[in-house]
Structures are given as C-alpha cells and as structure tokens.
Specification:
2 copies of one chain form a homodimer.
Chain A (H helix, E strand, L loop, with lengths): L2 H11 L7 E3 L6 E3 L5 E11 L11 H18 L3 E11 L5 H18 L2 E9 L4 E11 L14 E4 L5 H9 L7 H12 L5 H8 L4 E7 L3 H12 L2 E4 L6 H10 L3 H7 L5 E6 L4 H12 L4 E7 L4 E5 L2 E4 L10
Parallel strand pairs in A: 4-5, 9-12
Antiparallel strand pairs in A: 1-2, 2-3, 3-6, 4-6, 7-10, 7-11, 8-10, 9-11, 12-13
C-alpha cells in the first residue's frame, strides 16, 4: 500500500466532522474556525532519526531548525502567520540531555526568526530520536488558500528555484563535491531552509491566486497532488533549477530539470495564478519580498500531467518522495 | 536529569514569546488567543510501543482510544471543549496497514464520543509504532482554569475514585487476578478511559474552582505539580480508592491508598475549590453529570505536602510515574 493509498483509507475512516472544522485531512494544514471572522490552521510532522535525518551529516541544532521550518512551510502554504508550536520529543535511554537542548535551541532559533512561541510539549522514551512538531497559525477567512482552487488556464508558479536542498543533501552525504559557494548555497538550503511565510501571506491575500501548497515532496509529486485536489491537469514548460542543483546534476550525470523536479524539501510555495494577473502578482511579490515568482507552466482542463521539453510533450510521473514506495 | 528538570531546562530555553500565547509550557495545555473573547488550547502527547503501551495486553483499537482519551483529559483540565485532533504516526516497515487503520478506528471512536474531528496528520517510518497526538480545544476566556490558582484553605477534590487504571494494567499483565466484575471495571478504566470533559467545563465555569489539572501521573505527583505552580502546599486526608484498586492492592499486599495515590492514568480531574462553596459545587457536578466530587484534603500556605493517616501526619513523596527516573 502506497502512502497516498493509506492516507486515503485513513481519510475515509476518520469521516467524523465538527461544525467548526472547515478543512480536514488532505491539504497542507487543517483549518478551523475559533470565531466567525477568524481561521486557525494546524499542521503536524513526525521526524525520526535514521529515517528523516542523520546526525552523521547535520548538526542537531540544524535538525531542530529544519523540523520547525518544515512545519512553518505548511502554515505558509495556507497563507497563515504562525503563532505557536508544540513539540513531542522521544529520546533514547542514552540521549544526552544536552542533545535534547540543542535540538530545542535549533527549533527556537527558527521560531524566533518567524516570531512564534514554542508553547508546549511532551517528553518520552523512544527507540530512536523522534520529533513530532505541531504548528498553529492564524489567517483571515478570505486569505486562506487551498490546494483545490486551481482552474484551467492558471499560470503555475513557484517562489524560488528548485533542487538546492537535494544538492545540499548530496553534498552533505559526500555523494557530490561542489565548488565552495555552490556547496554553501546547497547546504544552507538543506540544513537551514527559510519557509516562505511572508510570500504565502502576500499570495493568499490576492484573489488572483487560486491554489497554493508547499513544494516539500518534489514539484512533480506535489503538483500531481494539487491537480488531483483541483480536478485539473498541468503542462510543465519550464523548471527553475537552482545553480547548485544544476552543478550537482551535471556532476552526477543527471538531467538538471529532472533532478530539480524530483528533489523534495525545497520548501518553496507552489501556486496557480489567474493568467492575466500573473505579471502583476509576480511584481508585487518582488517588490514586497525581493523574491522572484518563477513561471513553471499552465493548468489544463485535461487531467493529465505532461512536461514539454525541447518541443516534445512527455507524460510526467511523480518521481518525488514516497515514504512507503 | 529527571523529567521535571529537563522540562525546566527546556522551558528556560524556549523563552520566546508571542503576544497571543497566554500560557506556555507547564500547564495541562498551552493557551492562545485567536480573538479577544476566545481562547484556544492545545496539548500534545507521544506514545511509543514498548514504552507506553503493548499489544501484548491491549487491542490496537483500545490503544488508539486511550491515546485520544489522554489528550482529551488535558483539554478537559483547561475547561475547554475539544474541536480537532491531528495525528502523527510512525509505523515500522512490517506494520500491516490494517493495524494502522485499527489504531485510527480506536482514535476515531473516542473522537466520536466527544464530538471532535481528526483533521490532519503525518505518516512516517519509525523503529517502533509511535503515535503523537495533538488536540485543540476552545474555551471562554473566563472559564479557562490553570494549575496556578490554588489558594490556602481550598478544598482539594477529584472527580472520581483512583487506582482503577493501575489495577486494570496489573490485571491485563496477569500480575493480579480479580473477580470478573472488578476485573471488568479495572480493565475498562485502563483500556477505554472516559476523560472528564463535561465535568471540566462545568468546573471551569465556576468562579469557586481556583485550580484544575488532570490526574494522569498519579495524585501524589500531580498534586505536587499543582502546588508548586500555585506556591502552596497540601494536606491529604482521604484518598478515594476505586473498588477494583482496593481488591488489587489487597491481593498484591499493598496499602490501598498508596496504591491509588501512585497509580497514574486515571484521567480524573484534580481541582481546588473555595472551601465554603465546595458542597454547592459538588452538588452541581452531581446534578449535571451524575459524578461525585471526592474531597481529598486541603490546600495549605506552608509549601509542604503531607498525608494524614490514622491521625498521624506523614510527608508525602511524589510516587507517581517519572519517565526518566
């Protein structure tokens, strides 16, 4: 059973509802309504040593930062601003308390950078260092932007070039050697990513942005999910590739755009934008955040995912990360 | 380093704040303010197979129920009503998807009983079946009742007799054999506990209830925590012991009140109540929920914890559960 299939089976099982829960399983975060004009969002992630991270190639402080950043990216994808986090932490018998405090220091550094508070948690014994983070954010009812709103004709765009995180992981693992400046870019992207919270709020506030999600499992996988939720297809015409990913792909003998497409954990936002407003939205994002909104392709009514490469149209297979494949 | 010491070190480290986070680490749940009149609460727990539960003596469905119930008990202790839960679940390579669905079925059954929705989650690989649950609730600003409000002279009370869960665990493990009716009571208390959500809301709505927490680590440990947060001490005069706990303690050759005092996971609420209002509050709880509020003792200005037994005063040591001792 693949991850998406098991998630669907779980989704079918937990069909319980609450009048104030507006969005349940299946988007970047769940949404509920504490009062009429307010929306709160919540997202949770589990990270296990040896599965999601290794102290062999990352400091424990960076592991903490990254865990927090991954959750903030989901909050960003709902156009929300983060308010608080809770941390459930499983430590081994022989985990030094100093390591736990380092992990917290990393999470707190990221929380400080984004102005949220770590407000609660739970400590437990576990057979591997295990971190379950939950982040809550708040968003105006009209700004909250889901995966399901993409419309045929929309421009598909991402908030940054892709593949740097994958290049960084390859560099940290010693699978590829990059020149110092590119190595630094790539390792920074992997170890201390900056989720696009400001960009998400700005994009969510625009009525021309129809759908949004974060691009944490690779563009090909995540775009397929967005299209499935929206009942549409997509044509990818251009994959913005980070300089470090370009160099890493070349050294590894891989095609750069496929390397970037399949590389997860870039934590950029993936949006679909009303075509005639795209230039305007991109200009606003650049003016207010300094970031470029990269045009990737276009939403199609036909539910297929295709990629146009040197004039030839190829079917696109989700080649991102599946924890259970 | 003991659990409470590590929690204190973490607490000192995560001193980041957010203007809308009103209560952080240290109470049953964190509290924030989505809008002026509303308070949201959030609590999280990690449960690991082999540490917190075993499939050897409990069905996986009951494990799911119990995990949800434990979090709802924390929400109850804030006088809040639960709205939603998120579930981060770590499964082993060889965990059958059917087991994951059973675990969800148990959580969902408990969620149904209390009217909340499972609204999101994360699936991951892990070296042991691991469950990190987070529950969010909502409460009126004036009802939210913390651990820190106990005042000298308050009556200390619990919402039910104690020790049944511990007796149930002993019965499930085969450490003690109880007569069928008592065994059923004890096993039900352990495997399918009913957190006191209605009682918590009722108690929180009374201005005569000064402090509240749930009694999940054993009365002696939890009362010590409540007293520490309130800067007071306590004198225990009477420990209400469940019939099954009485029988189990007798068979195990232990004193029944000590067995009940140290037995965690009863998920009753522990409150301190203005002395002259106690009878009135207890009558309202009985009228509206059918439950008895058991008088346990009295809050003292002197910061010691003592227990009066057959006329003799003994110092009370926290003998509840410490994950790290």
């Amino acid at each position: 059973m693949r991850e998406d299939e098991l998630v669907s089976a779980i989704d079918a099982l937990v069909r319980g509802s609450h009048s104030r829960v507006l969005v349940g399983i299946g988007d970047d975060a769940a949404v509920w309504q504490p009062s009429r004009s307010h929306r709160s969002v919540i997202t949770t992630d589990m990270l296990v040593e040896g599965v999601h991270f290794s102290r062999a190639w990352m400091s424990i402080r960076d592991i903490g930062w990254r865990a927090m950043a991954a959750n903030l990216s989901d909050v960003a994808a709902m156009a929300a601003r983060p308010v608080l986090a809770t941390v459930a932490l499983g430590m081994m018998e022989d985990t030094p308390p100093a390591d736990v405090l380092e992990l917290y220091a990393g999470m707190q550094a990221c929380a400080d950078a984004y102005g949220l508070a770590i407000a609660g948690g739970d400590l437990s014994r576990a057979p591997a260092l295990t971190l379950a983070l939950t982040v809550v954010g708040e968003v105006r009812a009209t700004d909250c932007t889901l995966r399901s709103g993409a419309r045929p004709g929309d421009v598909i765009a991402v908030t940054g070039a892709l593949g740097a995180s994958r290049a960084g992981l390859a560099a940290l693992r010693g699978e590829v050697t990059l020149e110092p400046a590119l190595a630094a870019e790539a390792i920074e992207a992997h170890a201390r990513p900056f989720p696009r919270v400001r960009e998400g709020r700005l994009l969510g506030a625009s009525r021309n942005v129809h759908a949004m999600m974060d691009c944490s499992d690779g563009l090909s996988t995540d775009l397929a999910r967005l299209c499935a939720r929206s009942g549409v297809g997509a044509r990818i015409e251009n994959v913005p590739v980070a300089a470090s990913a370009l160099a890493a792909a070349r050294k590894l003998g891989q095609e750069a755009d496929l390397f970037a497409l399949a590389g997860g954990e870039d934590f950029e936002l993936l949006v679909t934008v009303q075509a005639r407003a795209f230039a305007h939205v991109a200009a606003r994002v650049r003016a207010q955040t300094g970031r470029t909104l990269h045009r990737v392709g276009v939403v199609q009514a036909d539910e297929a995912l295709v990629m146009v490469k040197q004039g030839v149209t190829h079917p696109l297979t989700p080649s991102g990360w599946d924890h259970f494949a």
